[in-house]
Design brief:
The chain is an all-alpha fold and about 180 residues long. It contains six helices and two strands; from the N terminus they run H-H-H-H-E-E-H-H. Helix 3 runs parallel beside helix 5.
Length: about 180
């Protein structure tokens, strides 16, 4: 008997749990239970917006997806610099207008610039799993080193956005009131 793995005592159960942990989360995606809906205009209906975790909703919430996404690039350090600056400027413009949803979406794009650039720095072509072989984890360290520099640029802007006192207060209030 195997003990100490979160109470599981059966080797098959442990193997199944480990397999689930290694697969990408999108394999079991359920759009009906996802908080963000592609047919909602979150500027007209901001009360429907949820902060969520990390980057959730970033590629769905309109009109912000279209406003911010057009500037999101991380191919090189220089491109990441231009992109993150433009997105950070949008972040501050949304804050100045009292538009928390826009500011949070801009923050999410900055975070996503970091995470995606890191993915491409760590894995060749940005592919973490092999979709043809039961989603086995691919070799880490096979990616593009230049993406690591792009990631650093986005990381600095993302953290600057998170440290913004007005944003932090708005986020706290929003999460308390709406989730």
């Amino acid at each position: 008997m195997i003990q100490g793995f979160n109470g599981f005592k059966n080797r098959d159960t442990i193997c199944f749990v480990v397999l689930l942990m290694q697969q990408p989360s999108y394999l079991n995606f359920d759009p009906d239970h996802y908080a963000w809906k592609p047919d909602t205009d979150y500027r007209e209906r901001p009360e429907l917006y949820r902060v969520g975790k990390g980057e959730q909703g970033v590629l769905i919430c309109e009109p912000y997806k279209s406003e911010i996404g057009q500037y999101w690039r991380f191919k090189t350090k220089a491109i990441a610099g231009e992109s993150s600056e433009r997105i950070f400027n949008l972040f501050t413009e949304y804050l100045a207008a009292g538009d928390f949803v826009g500011a949070d979406m801009a923050r999410k794009y900055l975070q996503m610039g970091y995470t995606r650039a890191r993915r491409y720095a760590n894995y060749k072509g940005g592919k973490k799993y092999d979709g043809h072989q039961d989603y086995v984890l691919l070799e880490r360290g096979s990616g593009d080193p230049e993406k690591s520099e792009a990631a650093k640029v986005f990381y600095a802007r993302w953290k600057a956005a998170e440290k913004n006192e007005l944003y932090a207060a708005m986020k706290k209030d929003w999460k308390h009131a709406r989730g």
